[in-house]
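Justification of computing resources. Each target in the renewal requires a structure prediction run like the one illustrated here; the chain below, 303 residues long, is used simply to show the kind of job we budget for.
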Amino acid sequence: MEQRTRVEAIIDLSARRVLERLPAYGPSGSFVEFLVFGLKQGWACLFGGLLLGLILLTRLYWPEYLPLMRYDFLFLSALIIQVGMLVLRLEQFSEAKLILIFHAVGTLMEIFKTHAGSWSYPEQNFFRIGGVPLFSGFMYAAVGSYMARIHRIFDIRLEKYPSIGSTLLLAMAIYINFFTHHFLLDIRILLFAATILLFGRCTMHYRVFRFRHKMPLLLAFTLVALFIWIAENIGTWSKAWIYPNQASGWTLVSLNKFGAWYLLMIISVVLVTLVHRPRGLDAKDSLVSREDVTRHARKTSTG
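Resulting structure tokens:
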């Protein structure tokens, strides 16, 4: 299992003392697994959840008389959250390095996209680069934080994962197309097809609490992209940024952006594999999974 931070180990031990007293099988056992799944997802989303919460709160109430502008407040808050997570050992330094890469990659794309008119930031602020508020990079960093944390929190193992070289090439092609489709042919459809060819046979195995579960990796990409698309709708409603069709009034973010987030998932996963190398199930994991299934079947037949 991936190494936890010291704080996470303490939280995990305390939670297990309570959860292990709860039923393991039947509907109650399934509910326990579902509950732990939700708690772990929330913990993995800690950085992004706090940032999105601040975006929403400052949209609902922001005193105009404050000398600090809203975007600058969000930037400083995101910086404090990031430093705090490291100081409190809620995040590993190797993950922080990865998040910094997400921040740089995202900020570069933000500068290009805003100048291309893809979206804009309607409010003024001081901390900006190339006309882009610096807090925007932290939104990409939040995705990176989630992807890195979820990998070890759920002890993710990948079966039939493609070669690192092939995934790097695909990630580079996706990132380049985000820029070049403005003045060259958009090869998005080809990139979608490439993701299916590379990852279509790959299965993700993850441990929730007592049992290991699995799902197709492409389904995991889709679900995370959907979650981010929902968060983006909250962000645009909060006017953290807006698309051209939202200038006269808020509307749902186009489903085309859902596809863009799906492709961004590929880049995110590839970057995470540079820190957490893909691992398959070992013999112990396979044995435990079979024992769990056997015990469950026995419980069901006798109960």
